[in-house]
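# step 3/5: fold
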Amino acid sequence: MSVEAVVLVVGEEELLVDRAIGEVVASVRADDPEAEVTDLAPGGLEPGRIAELTSPSLFGGGKVLVIRSAQDLGKDLAAEVLKYAKAPADDVVLVVVHHGGAKGKALVDGLAKLNARRISCPKVTKVGERVDFVRSEIRRAGGKISPDAARGLIEAVGNDLRELAAACSQLVADTGGKIDDAAVARYYRGRAEVSGFAVADKAIEGQLADALEQLRWALATGVAPVLIVSALAQGVRGLAKVGGAPRGARAAALAKDLGMPPWKIERVQKQLRGWTGDGVARALTAVADADEQVKGGAADPAYALEKTIAEIVAARSQRRAS
């Protein structure tokens, strides 16, 4: 990463902001390991302070001056930043961090006109963006992950980017780098939601052996049978909902009517390729029976779940048998 004299970091995603700052500092210290770093919020600044901090040191050496929350700088301090940016010191890198938005935008525009290097760190809010983030993190760590496995990891870990980044790094270390649905389920099998949905996905896709393996993992780690039945029911109901929608309709157009995110609809559309309407109806009956059994109607809930999974896989096979 090359470092210009003035770097503008814009955005509210804290992990990405901290990484951008860290990469600037690392680049400076690659040439000058003793470079001094000063990290300030607007409350730590006063008129004349910027000139003081950017003046040459008696002992020489480079400096990195980070000004955070620059949107909160007053007019006078913002003017000082712009004045400095017009003639920056040779041995100083100024990093200005702005949340984005209208507040303090004059400073952002002014630095842009002065050709400050801009690094964008927008908030990651959409599912697709988080999937892209996870896949990028896995690549960054030297691994590879499928889109479905990335979604599974998000369902397991949640939306916090710091936790997702840590999980990605750990998964690559644990698996050697090639990560699929099974790997996500294996290393996050203590999370009931993921374990249950992993079982459901494998059953719906007709992968009997894999579904039974996921079921054993889930039960062995304490996932309640009722949660697994719930995941199976949601999966089969998803088939019914998406299967009843107009053929050829785009996922984005169906999302509001079906109450499902577009990525989930796309996944179910792929799963539907092995199903008939009669098969879905048979699977719905199977999960309804399983719900009753695991809530007290069966002496062995584990056996009841194994039987239900086998019935779902068999229901999917109806088209080939007919």
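# step 4/5: annotate
The first strand starts at residue 6 and ends at 10.
# step 5/5: archive (pending)
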